[in-house]
Amino acid sequence: MNSPVQVTVFIVISALIALATYLHCRGKGKGQAADEKDYFLANGGLKWYFVAGSITLTNLSTDQLIGMNGNQMALLAWWEFAAVAGLLILTFIFLPVYYKNNCTTTTELLQKKYNDKHIRALISVLFLFGNLFIFLPAILYGGSLFLLSMTGMDTGIQNLMFTSIVLAIVGACYAIFGGLRAVAVSDTYSGVLILSLALLVVYLALSAIDFDLSGIPAERLTLIGDNNSPIPWHTLLTGMIFIQTFYWSTNQTITQRAMAAPSIKEAQKGVLTAAGIRLLIVPAIVVIPGIVSYKLYGDIGDPAYGRIVGDVLPVWLSGAFAAGIAAAVLTTFNSILNASAALYVCDIHEAYVDRPKSVTKLSAIVSIAMSVLALVLVPFFASQESLINTVQELYGLLSMPILSAFIVCLLFKNVKAGAAMIGVVSGVAFYGFWSMVWEPAHYIHGMAVTLVLSIVTALVMNKLIYGVTPQFSLGGADTTSEAA
After folding, report:
1. pTM for this structure?
2. What is the block-wise mean pLDDT of the chain (484 residues), using blocks of 10 residues?
3. Of 205, 323, 343, 389, which has the highest C-beta tally within 10 A?
4. Domain extents for the chain?
5. What architecture is domain 4-388?
6. Helix or strand (DSSP H, E) at 421
């Protein structure tokens, strides 16, 4: 950072967040270092406000703030409006099922419904691939880009990699030494800071142009996208709701927070609070600064948010905002590491290797390995035109096939795990062909088609290969007497 004031404020606030997290978590879970319930679910001790704070900031990281503002158009707010529907689906449909089945990971539900450990492992591997090859490197790149652009430093690959390495090391330390409790608590403290400052940036950015949006092209202000826009209006009627259902209701990184509450009512209260924040606050902070930056600087893409924050905030506040963004990057990064460790330890290692002597030690190994590999992929994301569009399009390879396995087990009886797995694999292959070779329509439409194809393939293969006719039944198989 260029100013001693920026550096001082950045260090002080970062240290205060770390201290507050330490004081809150000190002594909790002591003596249970090898207990996965404590390490991955905070021993069921997250109050509703920590659930809400952690869900909000885990999602609200640089791929949202940097990527959405980088598009410099209002249209991207639809991702946030639609997310409210996804959170409501988690609250009233998926959470009751997870709590009823006493799940540590979302994929544990699949094992209990299909009575098969292999489908749980397959979906875990897909989640891990998504975390490793898409989300972790995208978060490191976006955070590094913001910090460099805000302070006016060179955003060349050497500076990006150095900053990414620092963020990865600190983020991994949170995940390794604190478990989910430390992650959720630091999320909440950081969330209050970053939401407050992000709203201030919205006001100051609008003030910088005297609240006058004239001169900005109409296509950058509309919420109705045409066929050439990032979100054509008709995609809101097809794949958008399925994307949100997958992300908010089956993604371990998000649902893990809600599953760590002491009761389902506490969890639902936290998720509904997160939905309120998503509806009332987040859309403004992820699009308005980007739109204003278009009027001020022209079409500059992903560096837009960092540049406008650096210009409109006083020096001392820009240091505070940098600390908030760094905290957002760290908490999202360590949230994904903690969720990935949970998936590997619970779904793969315990099922195919052995029950670990120390959950903490094995999780540390997983976290370090994933951090190193994620750093290798940062240059790829640095070469992309739009961070958020790249992330969403790539994740389609995994999201709809994974969601199909959940939908089949919740809506049908007598479906064999093997048939569902065929549906998942065929979905991955089909979406890859759709988005990378065929490209007949927008990738969000391709996600809807992929989901339907995966479900139909699973049901047809169940009849053809296993000779069993699927039976429609809300809630799927009754697992009360099934073995996990």
Report:
1. 0.90
2. 74 85 70 59 85 86 83 95 97 96 94 96 96 92 86 89 93 74 79 90 97 95 94 95 96 91 96 96 96 96 91 88 81 86 94 91 93 95 84 90 97 96 98 94 95 98 96 69 37
3. 343
4. 4-388
5. Up-down Bundle (1.20)
6. helix 417-433
